[in-house]
Amino acid sequence: MNHSSKEGSSPGQQQGPRQAPGEYGQAPTSHSSPASEIRIEIDSKRLRAYARTKAGEQTLTVRSAADETKGNRLAYVHVPQDGPNGGRQARPPFTVSGPNAELLCSVRPSGSGVYEVYGGDGAPIGRITRLDGRALPWPRRPRWTVQAVTGGEPLTAERGTPVGWALFTVFSPVYLVIWALGALQGLVPLLFGDKDEARKESAWDLGLPSRALWRASGHSEVVVDYRGGGIFHIESSRLDSRLAYAQSVLHVWDGV
């Protein structure tokens, strides 16, 4: 399926009827899921390799993670191969299209950690921002904010929960010892010239806390719940699925 033709159009060139969104920029009916919660899965590895994808090939596929529809294709993400990459504060522009190649949204960086999200008709639907955490006290916790153009309270989330970071801090010396042992274990096949096996043996992740909960300030209800493994639980009745897709892509691009 070729989605590259969608990338060449600027947000202002996309034409079509506009429909009024609802809470947190709730998508028009054609983009909404009938279920109150949807679960999606995103493979961050293909995002990191976007510059090596073939021309016209989608960078990754957003799939359903729900038990009854697991693996079903929900959307495609296309990042231009020549898109400038400014790291975590300025990812390249990208588009999200539906299963039938219909453009759902386009995402454009517009400053350090700021991304504007446009619908398929070129109308702005929201803004996503990423802020680095404080240098002190350790650790730094990146903060994401999703703001719909319809107004209302923005949804915010920080990487890792306070409990998760506290446990990580307590057990980090143990993690470091295990990591060091894994690195030493990787030296054995390397001595015999087996680089692939050495990479597998030494590839141990410290497992930084990654859970993120998006909710409005002062509210306990979670709208988006990232529990790791590239899987997001989304209250689709409260958040435009296009904004949810855009935020999810940017979040896993951080390497969580």
What report would you give on this structure?
The chain is of the alpha+beta class and 256 residues long. Helix content is 23%, strand content 25%. The protein contains five helices and twelve strands. It has helices at residues 4-7, 44-48, 162-191, 195-202, 241-253; strands at residues 37-41, 60-64, 73-78, 94-97, 103-109, 114-119, 124-131, 143-148, 155-158, 212-216, 224-226, 231-235. It has a twelve-stranded antiparallel beta barrel. A hairpin with an 8-residue loop joins strand 2 (60-64) and strand 3 (73-78). The chain is globular, with a radius of gyration of 20 Å. Mean pLDDT is 78; it is low at 1-22 and 27-34.
How would you classify the quaternary structure? single chain
Strand fraction: 25-35%
What distance lies between the first and last C-alpha atoms, to the nearest angstrom? 28 Å
Give the H and E element order.
HEHEEEEEEEEHHEEEH
Strands ordered across the widest β-sheet? 1-2-3-4-5-6-7-8-9-10-11-12
Biggest sheet architecture: 12 strands, antiparallel, barrel
Calculate Rg over CA atoms.
20 Å
Mean pLDDT: 78
Low-confidence stretches: 1-22, 27-34
Helical amount: 10-25%
Tally of individual helices: 5
| Structural class by helix and strand composition | alpha+beta
Number of strands: 12
Principal-axes shape call: globular
